Amino acid sequence: MQLEFKDKLFINGKWIETEKKIVVNNPATNQVIAYVAHAEANQVIQAIDAAETALIKWRKVLAKTKANLIMEWCHLMLKHQNEIARLITLECGKPLKEALAEVIYAASFVQWAAEQAKRIDGVIISGHLDDVENKVHYEPVGIVGAITPWNFPAAMVTRKIAPAIAAGCTIVLKPAELTPLTAYYLADLASKAGIMPGVINLVTGDAPQIGRILGEDARVRKITFTGSTKVGKTLFAGSANSLKRMSLELGGNAPFIVFEDANLEEALAGLIASKMRNCGQTCICPNRIYVHKQVYTKFAAMLKDELAKMKVGNGLDADVVVGPLINQAAKVKVKMHINDAMTKGAQLYFGGSDLAGNFMQPTILINVAPNSQVAYEETFGPLFALFQFESDEEVLSLANASEYGLAAYFYTQNYKRINKMRNDIEAGMIGINSVYLSTDVVPFGGVKSSGFGREGSQLGIYEFLNTKYSLYKY
Length: 474
Ligand code: NAP
Prior knowledge:
Layout: E1 9-11, E2 14-16, E3 21-26, E4 31-37, H1 41-58, H2 63-79, H3 81-92, H4 96-116, E5 123-125, E6 132-140, E7 143-147, H5 155-166, E8 170-174, H6 180-192, E9 200-202, H7 207-216, E10 220-226, H8 229-238, E11 245-249, E12 254-258, H9 264-275, E13 286-292, H10 296-308, H11 328-343, E14 347-350, E15 363-366, H12 373-376, E16 383-389, H13 392-400, E17 404-405, E18 407-411, H14 415-424, E19 429-432, E20 447-448, E21 451-452, H15 457-462, E22 465-473
Parallel strand pairs: 7-8, 7-10, 8-9, 10-11, 12-13, 12-18, 13-16, 15-16, 18-19
Antiparallel strand pairs: 1-2, 3-4, 5-6, 6-22, 11-21, 14-15, 17-20
Helix pairs in contact: 1-7, 2-4, 2-6, 3-4, 3-6, 4-5, 9-10
The chain binds NADP nicotinamide-adenine-dinucleotide phosphate (NAP).
NADP nicotinamide-adenine-dinucleotide phosphate binds next to α7 and α8.
């Protein structure tokens, strides 16, 4: 399949060439696949200017017209799903089947936003004085600055752009430098769908500089960011002067708890599905796997049997289910977590082999000590760190002993325990006997150092709306 690369900045509906370039590599081969535009500071400001001009018209466009345009974008994404999936695999490494699933997932946010664009309704509240009417309605926050990570090159982009523009905002988005091609391709489809020039603008370049410009420019009224906690904090501080609305979808360190009464087959299937998605490089991946003492040995053996069947390789090969890590730095981090845990007493139970390039064999460590690095830092790779526990109180305290609070999972059949854990685990999202947390219809987001704000569902649209109250005396 011949792929068309969109490699220039997308500002005010035009493709803008730059002198400087960003090199994009294929993580499966380490070969260069494209050279993408690197914006100068003035070009980032031009993108904000374009968003400012477009906002005047876009916010007034009839809701139904906005909805139709956004829906057309969704249709084009689905029509071009194979091309988009191939781009995702090329720049991010995930197997083609998974990339295709990401395109459908990414399109679902666009479809949801198109449908909801018509349902941004206000309310009339009973008067608190004689002859008055209280009206509450919603207005777009204005220009949005968005920054996305590399692990979902399509879905993180649509999960921000679609609700923002459905709410009547305009946007300047900076995709990750490792995976910009998918984002530019999606922007092109949005333009082909008829979304007005300037409503969606994309720039790539020096990330700290772009972050600083978006943060400091008072015309930008909202920052929405998905990425590491460290960068989230920088953006939060950098936006303080102009008091912007913020949504921060940050790192995680999800606990995955298997109680003694769990359906072990279901727990195993859930663990592998969630942990091995994108080779362990998702923010809601189980990172700390707590297994009750009574089922520990059996569960570890079952896990080993399943991992032994998984083929690692280039995501473009049909039978591959585990792609590469994104780069060498990612591999070094996984190896560091393995070495650290083993120094603290863990035993290597499966895997551990260093494969060529950015590839890594899925690995199981057993008897991992609670003071291991993997217990308090996100690994972002195919490491299954199995901790052992004996009581509910013990595992609840271990689960909450983390600065992060994005996702958490547990498997049990006991209703009282379900209620207690659901209420007491500190996380924005909890999977009980299932791991499929993220869809267009539910609010995705975290607590503690995993950030704040929600994406998906009606709440995801309200992140881009200001509430306006007016009192009217007749
Ligand atoms: P990252 O290093 O924070 O990068 C994310 C984005 O921020 C990229 O576009 C990056 O640009 C940009 N960036 C880097 N430094 C910046 C700065 N000083 N100012 C402004 N922008 C800056 O994170 P990552 O390694 O790409 O992604 C992995 C992290 O994202 C993990 O912690 C993961 O848990 C988290 N994540 C969270 C969610 C969620 O929904 N909670 C979803 C996915 C991933 P460049 O690419 O140009 O450097």
